[in-house]
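Residues pack. Consider this:
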Amino acid sequence: MEGKQLASLKDLYEKFPPVQIEKGIFKYIQIKVTDTASGDSILFVRGSARHEYHKEILQDFEIKVRQHLNVRGVTIAGEGEPQKLKETIDFKCPGGGRIEHSEKDKTICVYGYSMAYGPGDHPVTVQMIKEAYPSYPAENITIGDKEY
């Protein structure tokens, strides 16, 4: 992406896949990335056992994306002069919860909520995970009724 002009924000998916989760039981968040110049936005799902708090997952992701954009000098196409995406990009967490992922059983259960951000849109998260894990039976990727 060196000096690359993105056709749309979705081109970030080339470097940062829409879904990245670990194995085991861990916290997850949805991350809405918006280009404030155009209003376009995309959604990511990130889950990590290394982070104690949901906000740490957001901070880690934002740092990685901003570093990538800063080093690469990425711009985004639009009306008039292209703007450096690092100057117009915004990161928000609409919600989160927990994920229980068994690679052995090929099961993923999304449940709960984030104390800081509230519950994620679990049906959207489940759909994104199904697309990211096509080798898992769709019926094994579910929304659970556990609270936290």
